[in-house]
Design brief:
- The chain has 104 residues and is an all-alpha fold.
- The protein contains four helices and no strands.
- Helix 1 runs antiparallel to helix 4 and helix 2 runs antiparallel to helix 3.
């Protein structure tokens, strides 16, 4: 039941990240989005719960920015941030509920 909540949170976060405003993103927009994504990913690393998909999406964002596709790069960076935040939520949840699985 709790895992379903984490999955639902991740899906909502991805949906929110993909619902960006209709504007042409700039390099500064990308740098801001990337900084937020990397900060969230660093927080996930501190909890020892980084998702491999987050790293892949960050690489895709950087590749899109290098190609000058800033709209795509910002979207990918926002998705990476959402994934990192979902991994943080999962780590916190699992840290609290692992005790329920222990046989007494």
């Amino acid at each position: 039941m709790r895992n379903f909540a984490v999955i639902r949170l991740a899906a909502l976060a991805l949906l929110a990240a993909s619902a960006t405003a209709a504007f042409a993103a700039s390099a500064d927009d990308f740098k801001t989005a990337l900084a937020k994504a990397e900060a969230a990913n660093k927080a996930a690393a501190a909890l020892k719960n980084q998702w491999t998909t987050t790293a892949n999406v960050l690489k895709a964002a950087q590749a899109a920015a290098a190609a000058g596709k800033y709209d795509e790069a910002v979207k990918d960076a926002q998705q990476a941030e959402a994934l990192a935040k979902a991994s943080i939520a999962q780590a916190r949840e699992q840290a609290a509920i692992w005790k329920w699985a222990v046989i007494r």
